[in-house]
Structures are given as C-alpha cells and as structure tokens.
Fold:
Amino acid sequence: MKTKILLDPLTRVEGHLGIEAVVDSGKVVEAHVAGTLYRGFEQILAGREPLDAVQITQRICGVCPTAHAVASSQCLDNALGIMPPDNGRIIRNLIQGANLIQSHILHFYHLAALDFARGPDFPPFTPRLEADYRLPAAANKAIVDHYVQALHIRLKAHEMSAVFSGKMPHCASVVPGGVTVLPAIDKVTTFLWRLKELQSFINDVYVPDVLTLAEVYRDYCSIGAGCGNLLTYGGYDLDNEPDVMKRKRLIPMGRFTGGKLAGVDPAKISEDVRHAWYEASGPAPAKAGAYSWIKAPRYDGGVYEVGPLARAIVSAESGANPALAKALDTALTHLRLERQHLFSVMGRHLARALETQALANAMAGWVLQIKLDEPVATPHKMPDEAEGYGLWDASRGALGHWIGIRGKKIARYQIVVPTTWNASPRDANGVAGPIEQALTGAPVPDEKHPFALARIVRAFDPCIACAVHLVTPRRRLLGSLRVA
Ligand code: NFE
Ligand code: MG
Structure:
C-alpha cells in the first residue's frame, strides 16, 4: 500500500524546505522537494551601482556570504577586465577558506550529527525525529560533547575570517580588483594561531567523528546515491590568469558524468521553471503543476549534484589535488570501501570533512605567501557597458554570478546557487532533481519514523535562503531560462 509522508518544514537545514515522499513496501518510490519561501534578490539589484552587488548579494545568506562576495567580485573583475594582485587573490582565498571551515563544522555538528547521535532529553535536542540510534554510549557522548565544543571552534573560524574581511558575517573588505584590507604581521600571526587550533579540531575530532559514524552506520555508505552526475566550478585561485576557464585552482573546475571526467561550458547552463512558481513575468504562486520556489538548473539538459562530493571526485579523478585524493583513498581503505561508496549519505559527510582538512592545510601555506609591502587591489574604471561572470564554489557547491552593465548601472544580474542545483524540482522532461533522486529508493520500514529521509536530505547541507531567487530573463528557451 502506498503512503504519503510529509516532512515540512524539515528542521536543521537553513531556510524553509519541505519533503513529500510516497512510500510503497518500505521504500520511497517518489519524492518531491520544495523550497517554500519566496526571495527576490536579482530584482533588488536591477538599476543599482555595479559595485553594490558585492554587498547586496552577500545578504542572500548569513552562512555563505563570503562565497557571494568572491563570486560577485570575480563577476565584476571579469566585466571590468581586471585581476587582483597576488595579495588580493590570497586574502580572498583565506576569507573564503575560513568560512568553509566554519560552515562545514556547523553542518556536521549542529545540523547533521544528531541524525546519528542521540542528544540529551532536553531542548534544543528535543523534540526529535526518533531514529535507530546505534552508537556505543561513549561514542554517542563524545559527539554530543563535540557539538558544544564545535560552537567555540566556529567562533574561532569567524574571527579568523574577520581578521581579513573586517567582520563576519557579510564581509566588508572583498571588492572587485582584490581586497581593501592591508596586510600586517599581526594579522598574519593572529590568523595562523587560530588556524592551528582549527586544524587540531579538524584532525583530532571532526574527521575521526565522521569515520566513526561511517563505521557504525555502514548502510548509509550506500543509501542516497543520487543522480551520479557531479559539477564543480572549483575554487581557491592559485594564479592570476584572467580567463576563469584556464585559471589554476586548488579545487579544479569540472564535471563527472557517466563515470568519466568532463569539461564545463557555462553556455550549457540553463534554468528550467516548469515545476517552479515562476512565469517569465515574475513569481506565479498559483501556477499549475508547480510545487517549489526553487528553479531547476540543468547542464546541457542534465541533472547535476554540486558540493563537496563533486569537488572530491573531480579533484581525485583529475589528479589536480593529490593531497585530497590521498586523504579520500586512505579513509576509504580504512573503512574497507570503494570510491563508488562516496555517492551516499556518509560519502558526502566524508568528502566534506576531508576537504575541510585539505583546505586548512593549504591555507597554512597561503597565509605565509602574503607580502606585507605589496598591493592588495587593482584599480578599475567603470565602463558604460559590460558583461561579466564569476564561477566559484561556495561551501555547498557551484555558485555562478552573471552581470550585464548598461549606463554604468546593473541592467541584469543573475545568480545560480548551489542549493538551487541540489534541491531543484522536476524539469520540463519530468526528471527529478538531485535530492529528489537521492530520496528515491530510501528505506522507510516504519512510516511513523522516516528518519532515513532526513539523513539523506541533510547530508546535502541544503540552504534554501540561497536557493530561491527570481530570475531576470534574458534568452528564454521553452520554459528554461538561459543564464549565459
Ligand atoms: Ni545559504 Fe550558499 C553556500 C551559496 S548555498 S549557504 O554554500 O551560494 O546553496
Ligand atoms: Mg538565480
């Protein structure tokens, strides 16, 4: 007999997300994921000063503002024909890196871990979706203790970011051409000692806790495989090459599809609104057949997952990041698993933890490359007309900003955000989005306790505040909206 399960709102995700799943004979046979709150940032930007985009787009989200700051600045770098000097590039990387560490620790301990560790019987740990908690008592207690410790560690990560960004969240110093903060030796040292403390936490607490969960919940190393297609724009620039498609990055740009690596052509990215509450004229909350405020981005018409799993697989398969590839293989050997097991709930947690570790290690080298007496930004002149784009991975995945400037003002601004990819609804071909596909087949032996659904969705770390936007249409294509 078919039963419909509704989890709405799903808690411990950022924003307003609803899941509807149809269960038959103990398995999900159909799932719908909906963003249930309307936003509208792209509308706010039209007609404004182009430089304001860096500040306004950061207000999309308090979790990943640095990613919007960098993507927007890179979008403007591209439109203005400028590149940051080494110091500007390195300091942007450090600000974004500090935010990624904070974000991934937040996600694991404060959003996802309590799906697997049973919290104490008082708020904020109750009420809870009762689950098959299986950790031995000592391991369970350790993760709950680390929940509290992680609150302090996240503060350190925010402080580390603010050393160079001026404040967190919503940084002040990232601008087109580089940054406005002048390096000084006390900034480098105060950043570095916080980073060392974070590295200890990542190496001695975060990564071991994820490995413990993966050992105890081995079935979740196969549950929630998803669509199998991965996309990353990459991130953390290692040179000042103006063409983002040729720029060397710590995490390379790429796709993984049909078991193989492939390139990225931004012109193949489109947004489909067949099942989203939008018409070309704007929001359409009464639209027939629609069920989400999230649009459906597609690459060459295909469904793609973005985020740490995409970055890990593309990094490992391309050979571009040997340190991350080695860490992944070491962890998989320890767990007696193969790379294909990364396409799972635990695989996503593991990819997230190991990229946090690899990035922190890289940052310890970058901060020492800052040159105290060299410039931090390249000056610019605002053109009357220009087009630009910035492609840069936020913590949750591929983030694209596109701008059109006319009469020195923003004529058009378009943002395609990681969770828009992952939490997308069905497209015009009826093909479900990545989270919807990951939910399909999920085990739900007891419909009163659909905890597997929450575990699958939370492993993607969705952020609905980021995901929902109103488009400024440019080239409309059969209900899809081309963004490049
Ligand atoms: Ni609101 Fe964001 C990240 C961006 S998400 S958290 O990371 O961009 O979809
Ligand atoms: Mg958008």
In short: The first strand starts at residue 2 and ends at 7. The mean pLDDT is 93. The domain at 41-441 is CATH 1.10.645.10 (Cytochrome-c3 Hydrogenase; chain B).
